[in-house]
Amino acid sequence: MTTVTNPAAPAPAPAAAGPPGWSVVTRVGSVPAGRRRLRYAAGRVIVYLFMVWVTVTVVFALPRLLPGDPLESRTDINGSMSPERHAALTATYHLDRPLVTQYRTYLTGLVHGDFGVSIARDVPVGTLLRQTMPWTLLLVGAAIVLSSAVGFAAGTGAAWKRGGRTDRELLIGMTVLNAVPEYVLAVVLLIVFVAVIPVAPIGGGATPFTQSYGILWKMQDVGRHLALPVFALSLGMMATKFLLVRNTTVGELGQEYMVAARAKGLSPRRMRYRHAGRNVLLPFVTVVGLQVAFAAGGALFVETVFAYPGVASIMLPAVNQLDFPVIEATFTILAVTVLTANLVVDLLYARLDPRVATA
Amino acid sequence: MNGGQRTIGWIGLGILAAFAAVALASSWIPHDPSHLFRGQYLRPPSRHHLLGTNQIGQDLASQMLEGARYSLLVALMAGAGALVIGTTVGLVAGWCRGWVDTAVMRTVDLLLALPRLPLLLLLGLYVGRDTPSVALVIALLFWPATARAVRSQVLTLRRRNHVRAAIGFGAGSLHIVCRHLVPALAPILTTQFLLASGRAVSLEAGLAFLGVGDPNRMSWGAIMQQARSTPGLFYGPAWFWWMLPPILAIVLVLLGMTFLTVSLDHRFNRQLSRHVPGAA
To answer: How far is A242 from chain B (nearest CA, A)?
Structure first.
């Protein structure tokens, strides 16, 4: 931030300065701003599609390049399997086909939303995903919303009262939280709220055998099970966002447009959110987007600690058993979600700050 | 504030030095970490077993010491690996500029955007789960951050007068890089190394915690994994000497690295702002 530009500040009646529709943006270069923005968006989407293809291919190729046999997970108790049965199963899962054919089948399936059948569990992957995906989405979504709201509010608040006691304490606390991995936080929460003060359920997504209970009770039950995992996943992300927002806001508060805003006699609330906050939003949105990737990884840990019935419960066994279809499906969905989040951030960024697309 | 930063730095250094000393004192490990003491299952801390025993009668204090050595080893190897790759790439990108720079930085952006942990799981399958492989995979995932920091630093350095003077005297690229750039980059490289090592510690423990680490090593993460997969752990007292020590160890090492990084960062930034008016 070198200039005093503030997109949030009310424009000083541009119509008076030139012909109707005059603005700085349209005069940069010869191409109109609208088309520049469109070109920017199209470029982002093309890169995105390319990345999705690369990811899908890597996810297909990497596990298949490994030594190991996914059918090992299907051996009986004696750990043996007759050659005929092995051959039959190999044929069932198309593992005898050439890689190119397997790749084509895989891509066709993906386009149709068909992820194949799990080798280790002999269940369609779609069924497994329907059982686990909603839990992970609930957990990750709640954690991102919670950490963003608290991180942003606390960050601007601390910057507003910078140098004060609360600011210093928050700064130290958040720096510590930022350094601690989420599985450590999860176990600490488990120790505190399950072992020492038993107030929370030890794990799982909901209490089993409660089908006959009312909807309100069920929602409450899900919430109770969700609380600790969400905290474990949010705290680290919240700390990262707090530090970013606090430091960026401190920088913005020293800018000249803030002096102008104060001179105009604007209320502190307006200055804090509409002027300083608006400019902090840019780096903030970037970090929120990047944290989707982080949350997706962190959810694996947190779900494992709390035995949460999310995607980790099928993903980690699949990795150990070389269950190709499940590996492919879970990793592809994860990677595509993250890439999509990044695309959304890029496009949103251009909307928040038109200079990105037009410069 | 200044004194506070310095104190924090010394605390961090002290913590790290203590762990390094413990890790190096290899002959001091009281028992073989994998030896099974028959009949002494889940014993609380005592004179014979300083941190008690686990569910199959292994001495937890010995496992913790073994784990310290392993964690710090992985941290050093992965941190150094990420540093070497990141510095080389960053130097090349910042020095050559042009299409090399564009290509390299696009790759860096791409790698930074991908979800690391799942990628680590997949790559770990492919490369293997022994110690050097784990370190290598972590290094392969964490060099982009270093590369980006080094590149931006090189871009400002090459405009400095002494570098321009060297170019004017006809110095070769290699000479300038080794003689002028690398020494000036030392502060950034130090903090980047600490950052990468910290991430390596937490990721290595995390992998073992998920049960996909080196199966032949008794790391902190592996101790946590065994404790976590014991049913009813949190309904008894055993978590106190079984789960808590590895957690405290990980947190302490990470805090030590963070404190040291914060303090060094502060110090280097001050130096920078003194030499270059307007920087920082």
So the answer is: 16
